[in-house]
Amino acid sequence: MARTFRNLYPQVVSFENLWLAYRKTLRGKRYKEAAIAFDMAAEENILQLQRELKEKTWRPGGHGHFYVYEPKRRRISAAPFRDRLLHRALVNLLEPIYEARFSESSYACRKDKGTHAAIERGHWGIRNCAWFLKGDVVKFFPSVDHEVMKAVLFRKIGDADVRSCGMPGTCDGGRQMFCLRRSAASPSGRQRIARRFIGGMKPVRAAENSPPIHRRHEAREGGRE
């Protein structure tokens, strides 16, 4: 039976973890207006957030929304700074738990992985395999069933307090939580789909894109379509 993790909440809301999360959240954002405002009274703000979490009065703030147009038009939802801090505090504890079940072919938002490693793996596949199929799940995050996603995530987390404080941010935004959202899909799910329609393959996954690279010149019937 897979292990379920409990009693995580005291570690999540500890001042040491929240302070570490604050330092990480500040990276690359130090001169943003929201970061400057929080930083002016950082210790007091962290203590206030900690009190809310301990007293179970914390509620997620409203998200800001904007569009980016490269490489295509996408709607971005940005959580407030203090919510992103909490997301990071959760990631500090939960990332090691989920990291162990990620597929080795998944490269997005992982330590010692990332875009360059995915490109290198893709180049290896092109040199050594017969063909590849590029796949893209269109608008995955806006369209995925959040209740199903949370149910999958909850299989590993038996701490009700972590569930109640963490999952609103997981579904509504915050790029810090991407690595945990990704784990809602079984690490072998795409491999099973690819084997069903293509046969033996070596996938390379970055975000929603998954080109399975095939070693054989032949594919199962319909595979090339």
List the uncertain runs: 168-179, 184-190, 193-200, 216-225
Q: Number of helical segments? A: 11
Q: Mean pLDDT across all residues, rounded?
A: 76
Q: What's the domain count?
A: 1
Indicate the overall shape. globular
* Percentage beta strand: 5-15%
Helix content: 40-55%
* SSE order, one letter for each helix or strand: HHHHEEHHEHHHHHEE
Q: Note the main sheet.
A: 3 strands, antiparallel
Q: Radius of gyration, Cα only, in angstroms? A: 20 Å
Q: Whole-Å distance between the termini?
A: 39 Å
- Can you list the strand order of the major beta sheet? 3-5-4
Number-wise, the strands total: 5
Indicate the structural class.
mainly alpha
What does this structure look like?
This protein is mainly α. The protein has one domain (9-214). The chain has helices at 9-12, 15-26, 33-39, 42-54, 81-99, 114-128, 140-143, 146-154, 160-172, 178-182, 189-197; strands at residues 64-68, 74-78, 131-132, 202-203, 212-214. It has a three-stranded antiparallel β-sheet, with helices on both faces. The chain has a two-stranded antiparallel sheet with strand order 1-2. The longest helix has 19 residues, at 81-99. The radius of gyration is 20 Å and the shape is globular.
